[in-house]
Each structure stands twice: as C-alpha cells, then as structure tokens.
TrEMBL record:
Keyword Glycosyltransferase attached: yes
UniProt KW Lipoprotein keyword: no
Protein name as catalogued: GH36-type glycosyl hydrolase domain-containing protein
Pfam family, one: GH94_b-supersand
One GO MF term: hydrolase activity
Keywords: Glycosyltransferase, Hydrolase, Transferase
Coiled coil: none
All residue ranges annotated as the Glycosyl hydrolase 94 supersandwich domain in the record: 118-306
Length: 908
C-alpha cells in the first residue's frame, strides 16, 4: 500500500506528518505513571490534567482543538515583523493557513514524545518544539523551543511563553466559571507563575485547596525569565485574544516580577524572556515546565531538576528508553514491516487505557476518570503479555467488586480493588459483566500455570442494591462499609472460583420469555439500553454457555493437576447447582426464576458464613449440563435463514420480546455481535460458521468502512436502545466498531477459518492507516465512521484484543496451564522472502524470539510443524502436526537474562 499522510522514520515506530495543521481532530497522548495526562495537537492545543478536578489546561472536546484559542504557545516579537507563534497559533498565521505562502511545518512523534517543526523562509527562522511528560514521580509536562536563524541577516526577537492556567475542576468550565476564578491565588517566583485556588469549588464541596498549578521556564543555560504577565486580561489586552495578545503584539513591558501575589482573576503562565539576537546559523532554546503539585512549588528545585537544555535532553532520552523497553516486551516481524511498526502503536494502547481510563483525551470528553468494570478485565488481556508482574495482583483485587448476586460494582476507584456504590444512586446491571472475568482469568492461568490463583480467598462487594439491582435493601447503610458480612458480623470471603461460579451460574437462571439471558441494563454495547424488562441478549447467552463449558473443564483440571476432589462454596450457592440435589427442568422459565429468587432471598441481608464441600466432578457435570442445554437451545431456536437464503444467529430480543434480526420491511437486520460469540464459543457448527461468514460479507461488509456492527435497522428503536438514535454508520449504530470486528477475526482464527480472519484483520489495518480517510495517527480507533474517519483513538479495548489475536492466534503463541503451546496460523504472504516470520515476547518470565521457518512458502493448512529447537538444541515433538508444546519446566531451567530463541521449521 502506498504511504499517504504520516510516514515512518527508521525502525522504532517514529513517524512524520507534513503540514499536520491541515488535518482536524488530530491529537497525541503524553502521560506518565505519576498521573500526568496530556493531549497535544499539531499546534500544541489539547489538555493537561491529573484528574477530573485538577485541570491545568482547560478541559476540551475535539471541537475545541480548532475552535478554542486557549492553547500552549510560545511567542516571538520580531523586529520589523511583529508577533510570530512557534505553534502557528496566531491570527496572522491562521489567516495564511490555506495560502501559497504558508510556512512549512511537520510533526515527528515517537514513544512518547511529540515534536513540531515550523520554518518561515521569509523570516529565516526555524522553530522546533519538543513536548513530553517525563517518567519521573512528578506531574509535569516539559516543552523545549529551539530557535534557529536560517537566514542571512541578524535575527532580533523577544520571546514570551504563554500557557493558559485554567487550574480547577472540569465541572467549573461552564458552572461558575467566573466565580471560581475569584478563588485564584496567583504567585510569581524567579522562574514562573503558579496558581493555588483558595477552595475547591466542585462536587466534593467547598474545601480548602492545596493543589497548585504552575508554569516555570528558563533559557538553555537555566537563566530565569525577566518577568511575567500573570493575569489573562492584562496579557491579551482589551479586545485581544490568545491568538493575538496585546502584550506580544505591542511588545509591552512586563507587568509583574518575582514575588508578586495576586488574586481573583483568570491566570496565564506568560513568561517574558530577555531579548535575543541570533546570527545566521545560531540557535537559542528555552525550556518550559507545566506542573500540577499537591502544594506550593519549590521553583528552585524544579529549575535545577528540569529547566535547562542539558536536563531536558537527559530526561527526553530517559523517557524514550523507558517506553522502548516497555514496548519491546512484544514485537512482530513479518513480510510487512510497516504493519509490524503499526502493531507497536497498538501495543501501546492498552497501557494508555490503564493510565487514562476512558477519559481525559479530546474525544473521551465524558466520564470522570477511572475505568469501567469491563475495562478492568479486557485491559488485563494485553497487560498479561506486556506487564505480567502486576497481573495476579490486579486480577485478585478486581474480584472484590463482585456482588453475591452475580452482579458487580459499577463505579471503579483509582486504586486496584477500590470499588464504591453507584455515584448517582442509579441501579444498573450490564448483563455481560459476569462473562469477562473468567476469560481473563483463564488466560492468566494458561500463561502462568498458577492454578492456585482460583483457590485464593476474596471478599464480596455490598451496597444497598440487591437482586441484580431490582430491589434495595433498606437495612443497609453506607456506614456498614462495602463488604458482604456474615450473620456474626464478619467479612465473608469466598474463593476466586466461587466468585466465577456465581458470575456465570446466576445468569443461566436469569432468562427472558424466549429462554435467553435477560439483556437488563445492556450488554457490552451500552447503546442497547432500552430493553430492561423483556429484552434478551442471545449473543451473550452464547458467551455464558462457552464459559460454563470452560469452567467445567477448569474444575476437571483442578482435580487432575492439583488433586482437588471437592469444591468449597457458601452453603447458599449450592441451590444453583441443581443437578446435585433436585435437577431442574431447564425448559421451564418459571422454574428457573423461582430457584433464582430462592437464592436471592437466602443472601439478603447477610450470608451464614457456612461452607459446603461438593464433589468436583459432580459440579463439573452440572456446569456441562447447563452449557449443553444453552448450546442446544440456541441452535434450535436462534438460527435464522432469510428469504435470500443466507443464514446466521439472531443476537437480541427487544423490549417487546420480539426477535430483532432477520427479514424486515425496511430490509435485512443483522448484528455482528450475534455472530462473534456463537462462533467463538462453539455454538455455531463448522458448517454454520461458513454460512455466517457469507452472511456477514453480504449484509455487514463495506469496502469503505469495513465490517459494520449492524445493518440498517430503520427508526430509532425505542424498545431496544439509544444506539439507534445515532446516525447510521456512526458509533454503535452501523460503524466499523473495532472491538467487535477484531473479536470476529479472533473467533474465526479460533475455529480455523484463517483466510477469513486474516481478511478481517487486514481491513482494520487498511482502514486505520489510510490517512486520506482515517485522519489519525498510527493505532486502532474505537470505530471508523461513515466517512472513513478513525474516531476515539488510543483508548479502546479493541487494542488488547488485536494484540492478543496477533500473538495467540496468528503467531500461535499461547499458554496451556503454564506450558508454551505454539500453533502458528500465518498465511503465506506473512512470511518474508526468506520464508520466515517471528515474534519476540515474554513467557515464563523470560524473553523469547520465536522464529517460524517456512522454506517451501506453504500456506496455512498446507504446512505442519516438522521440528523445534530451543537455543540451538532440538526438542522432541509432543503434540499434533499443527502445533507443539514445550514444558514450562524446560523454560524455567533457562537463564532469565537475554533473549532465548525457539526455531520452528514448518514443512508440507
């Protein structure tokens, strides 16, 4: 594919985009583990925050990127010219944006730094502005401006940095914006300006505030500014604006020096530096720091630590090394090196979502920080192969959010294991939430071999909502805390296995009148939120069915691998394992509801605390019976054949209990979700999978935007969900929603439909990297809209799924209860000219380079595993033709240092 838009520079994933300001809605993330979260656009617009209530720059949405003038800026007042902005954010430069005399600009970006270069041939001036967030334990963004005289005459200018200091909660953007400026206490020091509002004036109440927002700066040698313009109205002047401030346009003298204390106004970090002369070829540079601190700033310490050209270079190198090391834990090497580099950016995205949550980037202008329940588990999928050291701890703590009724907390705290009751007292249950933890936990168990994890004890979450939020327990009060108690007042703990059982067995009985699991508040698609009474999710009934089967197999492996003969559970839960006492007629919906209600009543307001030991084989058989009933039910009742002869699985019932897919007067209705989980979970037979792919290609595939999430339903569907109020081809209504598209590919690979799966993955890559249409930097977006634009970049669970699919399915590198299983599903075109494809990844706490050699250039389905070598030594083949298994004991005998090589020869 011919490159358009950005182009890679070198082999580390760095890229360049010429004239970036001619593209709207672009932004780039800058972040660190200390909690500084930044977004930066080609003209250095964006936001800068450490949380919902602590924004240094003004909170923005994507429209603000081109409509608001309040951005990072660095100005020069040039003799015989006037005001000029290194970022292009001036009224004069904007007026020339589409003219032939426009300045030459380009951005370079890498992991995780951003550089803007602007060249003005008439002025003989080149400005390079590098921005990044250092990997220190402080909330700080650094910006270095390097100015070079590229002309033949002496260049004389007066520099002024200008960073607007919003300095408060996002809630104050339109609610008491002026009143909260009256709280501002503004101070100047030798190196800059800081704002410490007297009170926090937000939803937390009127509390004394300690958080301070600062802008400090110095020249390359560390010399402080001459003085400052701390108050916005003084800086921009009457009739002025941030894109044409009077203080710069008229080169006004400074209004304040070090030691000033002001209050009650909007603030700006406007730092005036000494006038400078540059001879032809000479350069000058300045470093500006934007800081959020828990208290007043020690400006001298910050100056020593950050504000010089030497320190900037050292910290930038440290930053680049840090992110390179983190991302080098997994890398792919195929015939398409550009796609391999693109995957590096995809690999970054799960880390970004861990750090940002689903907020604090311009498209993600909703929420208040933190992550949702679903995100906790899906992000761990990628972290397991990138940051495995913390995964066990994260998983264990996540289970503390499970309620005893099988639902879970809806508000997730910032710390692992921190859950709180619903902020707005609105009870809601997403029916899919119970399905994801087992999938993630199984991946962990297979990767690590840590079967003991599922036997670890953990508490349960408790609040006033009971019976899956259908009722409230008025005897509960917040003073009791958010832990489930026993009759004698102790915190109740059950094993992780018990938590998993509840999450998957309770939904089995919680069915609608068509026999599928109730949709409740919604499933993974939050837009299906208007069918709480009679809606059903057929798609996730398939997911839960496969979970029950997987759980049954896990129990048998516990018996064989750990010698467990019994499962210990709370005595109340035993009724849900009905075949061990009084087998239920699963065709009877009323019987299912009656049993579930008996269970609910037994756990309110507390549990007994008593445990039962149940035979592990009988429990496994019970779960298998439930799974088999679901599968048979779906195959018998939800398989659709339409009048054109295409066939697929229905995905949903609406709030009138009517099937939503099939032939309708408005046209054929179909959802991709209904196909993904029926394929992935083994509900669809091999023959049905082939029919499904034909139907998907017929009704959902669109060459311009990829695989649509659904076909056009027509109308707003008030009995199904708000998603259908969106314009068709946007977001959850018919866009290419990356999450489900990638899961569709994953499902196809799992079932051996490799060519079809590869076609799906290729479409995601092609659409995302077609800059002429997608207008996005490297990575996978949340969705592709009707015009082909990539929307909501960086923070999407689809990145975890794409990374996982590429590693475990395409390259076939996965764990099997701790052993390393290698089962490549690479197609012929993915091998290079030498017939090789490889991946470097972590496994068993060691780095491996796994090299597949395909000297005959055979396609998938033609080759078999012929031989395996570890660090040059042959290993015996222990599995089927298409795969091999390497014992964990062999891997753990290897040194942890260095990269170990596994060579696999494929032959026809």
């Amino acid at each position: 594919m011919k490159d358009k838009g950005w182009k890679y520079i070198g082999n580390e994933g760095e890229f360049r985009l010429e004239q970036p300001e001619l593209n709207s809605y672009l932004y780039f993330p800058l972040v660190n583990e200390a909690g500084m979260m930044s977004a930066i656009s080609p003209n250095l617009h964006g936001e800068l925050t450490s949380g919902h209530n602590t924004f240094l720059l003004e909170p923005i949405s994507v429209e603000s990127l081109h409509n608001s003038k309040a951005a990072r800026n660095f100005w020069l007042h040039i003799e015989e010219y006037g005001a000029w902005s290194v970022t292009g954010n001036s009224a004069r430069q904007n007026a020339e944006l589409f003219s032939d005399s426009k300045e030459r600009t380009y951005i370079d970006a890498g992991f995780l730094w951003h550089s803007l270069t602007r060249e003005n041939e008439k002025l003989g001036l080149k400005a390079e502005t590098i921005s990044f967030v250092p990997v220190t334990d402080e909330k700080i963004e650094l910006m270095q401006v390097r100015l070079t005289n590229t002309g033949t005459k002496t260049l004389k200018f007066t520099p002024t940095a200008a960073i607007p200091l919003y300095g408060r909660s996002a809630d104050d953007l339109r609610d008491h914006r002026h009143v909260t400026s009256l709280l501002h206490r503004i101070f100047t020091s030798a190196y800059g300006i800081e704002v410490q509002p007297a009170l926090s004036f937000d939803e937390r109440g009127h509390r004394v505030n300690k958080v301070t927002y600062g802008v400090l700066g110095a020249d390359a040698a560390g010399h402080a500014p001459l003085g400052f313009f701390p108050i916005t109205e003084d800086f921009i002047g009457e009739g002025g604006a941030y894109d044409w401030p009077k203080a710069v346009a008229k080169n006004l003298p400074i209004s304040e020096k070090s030691g000033a204390a002001l209050e009650g106004y909007e603030a700006v970090g406007a730092l005036r530096f000494a006038s400078t002369e540059l001879q032809p070829g000479e350069s000058a540079s300045y470093v500006v720091a934007m800081i959020i601190s828990d208290d007043r700033l020690d400006s001298e310490r910050y100056a020593t630590t950050y504000l010089s050209a030497q320190r900037f270079e050292e910290l930038l190198n440290q930053n680049q090394a840090y992110w390179r090391q983190k991302l080098d834990t997994i890398s792919f090497h195929s015939a398409d090196t550009k796609q391999d580099l693109w995957m590096k950016w995809v690999t970054l995205q799960p880390i970004l979502r861990r750090l940002y949550g689903n907020s604090f980037l311009p498209y993600h202008d909703y929420g208040r920080g933190g992550r949702g329940w679903r995100d906790l588990w899906q992000d761990c999928l990628a972290l397991m192969v990138m940051e495995p050291a913390e995964v066990r701890y994260l998983l264990l703590n996540n289970y503390a959010g499970v309620r005893m009724d099988g639902s879970n907390a809806t508000i997730i705290g910032n710390k692992p294991g921190e859950f709180v009751a619903d902020r707005n007292n609105i009870p809601r249950v997403w029916m899919d939430h119970g399905a994801w933890p087992l999938l993630t936990t199984l991946l962990y168990v297979h990767q690590s071999g840590d079967l003991d994890f599922v036997l670890q004890p953990q508490v349960y979450f408790r609040d006033s909502f009971v019976k899956r939020c259908h009722e409230r327990d008025l005897s509960w009060s917040p003073e009791q805390g958010n832990r489930l108690l026993t009759k004698d007042g102790r915190e109740y703990q059950g094993t992780i296995l018990e938590h998993i059982l509840l999450q998957n067995v309770v939904p089995f009985f919680n069915v609608g009148e068509n026999g599928n699991i109730k949709l409740e508040g919604a499933d993974w698609n939050d837009g299906l939120d208007l069918a709480p009474a009679r809606g059903e999710s057929v798609a996730f009934t398939a997911f839960y069915a496969s979970n029950l089967m997987e759980l049954s197999e896990l129990l048998l492996h516990l018996r064989e691998g750990r010698g467990c003969d019994a499962v210990e559970i709370a005595e109340e839960i035993a009724v849900l394992l009905d075949t061990l006492s009084e087998p239920l007629n699963y065709d009877s919906i009323s019987d299912k509801h009656a049993l579930l209600n008996r269970y609910y009543d037994s756990i309110i307001p507390v549990v007994s605390g008593k445990k039962q030991q149940l035979d592990i084989e009988k429990v496994a058989a019970d779960l298998r019976r439930k799974a088999e009933w679901c599968i048979e039910h779906l195959r018998r009742n939800e398989w659709i054949v339409n009048k054109e002869g295409y066939a697929w699985y229905n995905g949903y019932y609406n709030n009138d209990a009517k099937r939503v897919e099939g032939d309708y007067p408005e046209g054929v209705r179909m959802t991709l979700t209904g196909q993904v989980f029926s394929i992935m979970g083994g509900v669809a037979t091999h023959e049905q999978v082939a029919q499904i792919t034909a139907a998907v290609d017929r009704y959902l595939k669109d060459e311009n935007i990829g695989y649509r999430l659904n076909s056009r339903f027509g109308g707003i569907q008030q009995n199904l969900g708000r998603a259908f109020g969106f314009a068709f081809g946007h977001k959850e209504n018919g866009a290419m929603f990356s999450h489900m598209t990638v899961m569709y590919a994953n499902a196809l690979y799992k079932r051996g439909f490799v060519a079809q799966g590869k076609q799906v993955l290729d479409s995601v890559y092609r659409l995302s990297t077609n800059f002429e249409r997608s207008r996005m930097y490297p990575g996978i977006p949340e969705y592709i809209n009707e015009r082909g634009r990539g929307m909501y970049p960086y923070l999407t669970g689809s990145a975890s799924w794409l990374l996982l699919t590429q590693l475990t399915e395409v390259y076939g590198v996965k764990g099997y209860y701790g052993d390393l299983q290698l089962e490549p599903k690479l197609v012929k075109s993915e091998f290079n000219e030498a017939g090789e494809a490889s991946v470097e990844t972590l496994f068993a706490d060691r780095m491996f380079k796994i090299v597949y050699s395909n000297p005959q250039h055979a396609d998938y389905g033609q080759y078999r595993v012929a031989s395996v070598q570890l660090d040059g030594q042959p290993l015996p083949l222990t599995s089927k033709d298409k795969e091999c298994l390497i014992s964990r004991s062999i891997l753990e005998a290897l040194p942890k240092q260095g990269v170990h090589r596994i060579d696999i020869t494929l032959a026809m």
